[in-house]
Amino acid sequence: MKDRIRECFKEKYGYDEGVSFYFAPGRVNLIGEHTDYNGGHVFPCALSIGTYAAAAKRDDDRLRFFSMNFADRGIFESSVKDLSYSEEAGWTNYPRGVMWAFEGRGLKIPCGLDIVIYGNIPNGSGLSSSASLEVLTGFMLRDLFGFDVDNKELALIGQYSENKYNGMNCGIMDQFASAMGKKDNAIFLDTATLEYEYAPVVLDGMKIVVTNSKVKHSLVDSAYNERRSSCEKALSELQSVLPIKTLGDLSEEEFEKNKDLIKDKDRQKKAKHAVYENQRTIKAYNALKSGDIVLFGKLMNESHVSLRDDYDVSCKEIDVLVSEAWKVEGVMGSRITGGGFGGCTVSIVKDGAVEEFKARLAKAYKEQFDMEPEFYVVSVGDGPGKL
User: Fold this and answer.
1) Is 174 among the catalytic positions?
2) Residues 105/147, Cβ–Cβ less than 8 Å
3) What's this model's pTM, rounded to 2 decimal places?
4) What is the percentage of the chain residues whose pLDDT exceeds 70?
5) Residue 36 covered by a domain
């Protein structure tokens, strides 16, 4: 991979002296969806797929970006003196947004850079290609310019840039999972406090299989932000009586006792998902710690039903992939993962059932949508690093 990126760097910029190489992972969330901006828990893990960069300092203020994934778009040029958002900048708004956020914290970028990017996360799949690129950029800036920021702060900078620069009101999970990933471990993260624990992902005789529906979503569009504002409104209605800071503070029983404070039925369903999903995630963490994969899988299935029926972020293509997975003996659990409106499912599948799982889902998907899903048997990887 490093040689491929080096070759591309030399071809585009005419040199390969003084070039540094970096990687930051994508993530899959095992359970805990749409809880991260509701003060709840999430349970993601970093993947061994992600985003790579080659970068070298320049002796002027020019920024040059090239993506091997969007080769037809050519080299995009700008300057460290002008990091304002621009539609024409396309994908480079993600790394430029991180640079803008660094500068906003007084971490001035002293010179321009030549950068080549390559990602092997499917674009729009819900495996956090944007967060991976943000963490990658932050890690690269820290290494090249010696900035004093730790990995947790890189996650917060990435989230801030996506919220304030790219207009996507995401929670902290994606950037945190990429920045703080640890091989063979999932991260049990309390998004209200950023306290976290690593939990070994011990799946003897089983695999994590990610299935890409190839239905692309754009999370910056209104649907995600609408759900966030529904939950904020529901929270303020509950706070008229309850001394809570977030929906994640409530147990299922407390929610049921007080749900009629939320005046709108649809808003009530959205808040119910946030509360119940948080409790499911806590139970799932304890199940994994005690080696109860049967319970873990059951909670994954319940999570999907809630995301489909209460939070309304699934779609017919994803529902077919999940319902077909549930029919395969040897599938412990399967659910939509990521923000929703397309993207991927995540399933825990016994080794002996993986081929049947793929065949069954591919057949049903082809019959109903005339499309072929992609399957990734993934391993749990480390956070960002220099290659």
Assistant:
1) yes
2) no
3) 0.89
4) 97
5) yes
